Amino acid sequence: MAEVYEVTVWTRGVSMDKEGRDVVSALAKAADREGKFVQAFDNYEDLPDRVGVPVRKYARISDEEIVMRYNYENENPDVVVIVDAALVKGVNVLRGMKRGGVLVVNTNRSPEETLKFIPNKDTLGAIACVDADGIAGRATVDFSGTEGGVDASGLGAGIAAPLAGAVAKATGVVNLESLAAVVANREALKRGYEEVVVKTI
Amino acid sequence: MFKIPKEREVPFGGIVPAPVGENRMMVTSNWRTYRPVIDHEKCNMCLNCFLYCPDACWHEDEAGEKMVWNADYCKGCLICVSECTTEALSPAHELDFEAGVVRLEKLF
User: Nearest-CA neighbor of A46 among A67, A20, A84, A69?
Assistant: First the structure.
């Protein structure tokens, strides 16, 4: 089976649910434009319908057709994106991560300060910190686009845009042009791409 | 014949064993982004935080002289901060503190 690039996003139920979903959707749609095979999904195992509960969103990107039947969780993510920085303190967000993986955190703190809260940082290849809250303002609390409904506010209208830009800069899995074609807030996307602080470990 | 289970033989909510004090199988400290911080100088023990907390995370200490916060179950809703009559409570970001959150390996 071909190598599948796995992206796991940690976000919070209801209040930042759309932002987490937008990150995986934007990355998957951008990679799709580049001719890759993609999947973007969440699952109900995470029980996302409670305000503030830690939940996950997933994306898979591959050069060949992705055959992972009945597996609704990324067991070994390459990239982990944290939409709310406080999550690094409460969960082992690096569980199952491949050696040399990348952690992208939405925080205005420095990478060193964020690493203090991660005891198992040896698996990390790099950490990227981007102040998405500062760039895009508040998280969009919006239910449009859930359960297959039409997404009225657009993909990446809030803090998802700078986070997707940061992932593109830190990993290079998609390029900025294809992201800009699918994301609503292009200005925030570009600023996230430019202002992200990447620290190699 | 079918045996009818007695008190505390049935799991609480059908999910976890019946908690006597705290339910250690449902620690919710990692739901929190901001935590309430108490200034004991300003606190006049009106007990509003105790009354309004949805998760019963505020209680008096044994001497009844000051309020004690339960860090393991506070979800950071900050209702106590808005209900505080003397502005003794204020929110602070969780990453400003070294400890206070139970780090879970898996959520469930």
Answer: A20
